[in-house]
Amino acid sequence: MEPSNALILASGSPRRQELMKALGIQFSVKVRDVDEQFPEELKDAEVALYLAGKKASAYTEEIALGHTVITADTIVCIDHFILNKPSGHEEAFEMLKKLSGRSHEVITGVCIKNKTVSRSFHVTTKVIFRELSDNEINYYINNFKPFDKAGAYGIQEWIGLVGLERLEGSYYNVVGLPVKELYEELISLNLVRHI
Length: 195
Hints:
Blueprint: E1 7-9, H1 14-23, E2 28-29, H2 45-56, H3 60-64, E3 68-78, E4 81-83, H4 89-99, E5 103-113, E6 118-129, H5 134-144, H6 158-163, E7 164-168, H7 171-175, H8 179-188
Parallel strand pairs: 1-2, 1-3
Antiparallel strand pairs: 3-4, 3-5, 5-6, 6-7
Helix pairs in contact: 4-5
């Protein structure tokens, strides 16, 4: 699949990069530090969409040069409370304890932006964990150090293998990028050619 113009994935996440590669789409990666603060009045999907848009606005130079920038932000919500990236072991433990034996939502906001297009969408997946023991939570944190992940976990890691009861929606969205929906959007915008 050849792109009609150069695509930039604006994400340092190795998981997002792997998923984009798996799609067979040609792209480059460019990462800029963007402040991930958001207005307090925003809720759930609004936060993910706001942050994805905020990240895209940091790439005005690339957009002016004719590139298409793809940004994404994934948040974890339980009872409309957002679990960000944990600051350390203690906060990671508190988050996973809160998710244990409960359902929560993983929401990814995606923004596709170039000179003529600014398209944003979000995908929500419901995730249900079984009851996790304190030992299991500590084992996971000690061995996988999930401090760069919203909600303090990666579904593709050990905790997902032993703790995932079921999910409703896109698995890849929980990994960090709703690839089916992104693929469909890129085709509808004529940014990639259909196979």
